[in-house]
Amino acid sequence: MRPIIGDFDLEQFLPFRLNRAAEFIALRFAAAYKAKYGLTRPEWRTLAALGSSGRMTAKEVGVHSTMHKTKVSRAVFALEERRWLKRAQDEDDRRVEHLELTVAGVKAYRDLTRLARDYSAELLDLVGQDGLLALSSGLLAVEEAMAKRGG
User: Fold this and answer.
1) CA torsion 67→70→76→82, rounded to 10°?
2) Is 144 part of a structural domain of the chain?
3) Which helix (H) or strand (E) segment is 9 a member of?
4) Is 63 part of a structural domain of the chain?
5) What is the pLDDT of residues 112-136, one digit of tens each?
6) The domain spanning residue 86 has which CATH number?
7) SS3 98
8) Residue 97 maps to a domain
9) Which domain holds residue 80?
């Protein structure tokens, strides 16, 4: 499809393409963990950040997962309600809380990572090994270039 107005081809604009692909992939995975665990995307992303990185503050979770603090706060509350995470106040700065998965949260994270592995295998079947390697290489190049420029 060619552009209707002007010479800008949205279909070839990298941010548009990356966002569209990421959204497609994320929504399919979100449907799987929502159906099985009733989690929202921010809850999954918060659980994943804590499961993969360990103890973090809400601000660190937000930076790690590129989520706004309001979404992180709601996700933390929901995961705490499930008893999947606990909060501990910082000894030096009482405004800061450290978040950590509980035993039940670690179990849920492990279960969800199995679901994620299954989804990764499905993507491998869909795109193929060469496609995933090319995508990974391209993403690494973008990430490295952005890191050099300061984000």
Assistant:
1) -110
2) yes
3) none
4) yes
5) 999 999 999 999 999 999 999 999 9
6) 1.10.10.10
7) strand
8) yes
9) 39-149
